[in-house]
């Protein structure tokens, strides 16, 4: 039994050291957000994840979505969901608290998952005037997502991918999960 306890402690320690934390400002390499975000229009309702750069955490996830709820002038609740394997598969979800890092501009979030054990910064790099799409990334230039309010047609999807490429991202690595 003591060996099992030691193994569990080591595994827990390794998993905690693998937690992602927000990058230091010196690590910011992503482009700056293009324009301000209207708090109520943007951080309300459901957004569909139509493209992303690969991440271990999203392996097997399709039909991804993020649901935002405004809690205050600098706080948003986030609920990320996806279906496992197929659009009809079981739902996976993760809820978080997000703090707006640039109040008034509202394009930079620090999201704390798992009671703060995992913290990621997200920047809204660009969005449609009518809030029908947005492109989000982490400030280190390693992660990228494209979200829309509705499933886009092929021409819209190509235009959004071209916009991500214009921002400097390697779009050849994008995944397009099924809906």
Descriptive key words:
single chain, 179 residues, alpha+beta, Lipocalin, eight-stranded antiparallel β-barrel, 18% helix, disordered N terminus
Between the first and last Cα atoms, what is the distance in angstroms?
46 Å
What letter string, H or E per element, gives the SSE order? HHEEEEEEEEH
Average pLDDT value?
87
* Main sheet: strands, sense, barrel: 8 strands, antiparallel, barrel
Q: What fold name goes in the CATH topology slot?
A: Lipocalin
- C-alpha geometry: globular
Which structural category fits the helices and strands? alpha+beta
Helix content: 10-25%
Would you identify the CATH H-level superfamily?
A: Calycin beta-barrel core domain
CATH class: Mainly Beta
- Number of distinct helices: 3
Q: What is the name of the CATH architecture?
A: Beta Barrel
Word description of this protein:
- This protein is an alpha+beta fold.
- It has one domain: Calycin beta-barrel core domain (Lipocalin, Beta Barrel).
- It is built from three helices and eight strands.
- The protein has helices at 2-17, 39-42, 154-166, and strands at residues 45-52, 61-72, 75-84, 91-100, 108-113, 118-127, 133-137, 144-148.
- Strands 1-2-3-4-5-6-7-8 form an eight-stranded antiparallel barrel.
- The longest helix has 16 residues, at 2-17.
- The radius of gyration is 17 Å and the shape is globular.
